[in-house]
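Hi V.,

You were right to ask for the full record rather than a summary. Here it is.
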Amino acid sequence: MPLPRMRTLIATAASLLLLGTSTGATAAAPDRDGGVSASVHTAGRVQDAGDVLRYSWPGVYFEGRVRGTGVGVVLDDPAADYDVSVDGTTVATLVTPGRTTHWIRGLRDGVHTVRLVKRNDTPWSTSSFGGFRAAPGGAVLAPPAARSRQIEFIGDSLTAGYGNLSASRDCDAEQLGRTTNADVGYGALTARRLGADHQINAYSGLGIVRNYGGGSPEVTYRTFYDRALLNEPDDVWHNPGTWRPRLVVVHLGTNDFSTPPGPDEPWTDESLAAAYRGAYSGFLEKLRSRYGPRTTLVAVGAGSFTGQVEQVVRERNGAGDRGVHHWPLDATGLDFTGCHWHYSARDHRLLADRLTAFLAGLPIRW
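Predicted structure:
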């Protein structure tokens, strides 16, 4: 759905930016026995279709282990961009790869860890991953173990990493797609510093009760939160039982309040604030019911809505839920030089520093 200053549909012309190790692509993937999920580790919201895993949210990643001199990455995605790393080093960036098996060749003969991560948010499209392949003479091995810690990040474009690699605030749709990278956003950085698996459930342009500029009033972030596939209205993500985060960080409110209500909107400043607080409190209650009393909830307050978030947290604490905490985001020193005045990659690093320090003072029950 169109929202002001949100990303428009990005052209799906297939192109590849290849870095480092010798790489290549072929047009189709070979068949394999068994489901993909048994051979990879992922913490993202995926729909398991057996021979492929389907997904929509930004920052979804897959990790595997392969023995041999090469690894193939099976994808069907005309919209999103990906980074591929082998043994901790990024070896390829795949730009809207389409339906392909992309090969990383010339590796040292031995056991390698491979990671694939979806860089950007493409909610109008469904992505498919068909697993990793080993070069002739090699083998796909059991995947890496899941990390003992899990963190869920909930937010909008600021959490999705919108245009964070851009050298300019002025971006067209193509530039926005190429310069958005959730994996270098504050969420992924914080999770790595804490040794945690993570989900980045972020949707650009949406708010708790009101979207940017009052656009698409028939939906809000809450419309999509329960889905794995964002462009399928009847989809509901079914937690396989492995996703039990002990920390959830909610950063929603910028789109509710960053533009004043227009004359065709039903809001006054007072009614918008009241509706926001009520919906925000209800959303926190939903998270509490879903994840239980051991999970710490961190509500991020920033700019004009800091006071609204603080009030919600204070009321929930007063009602007996002491596991909800307010993090007043400190924007000191941020340059906002990402696309359309969003956080830059440098800003995300600063925020990860500040959030990690804040979390260190909380009694999180990992």
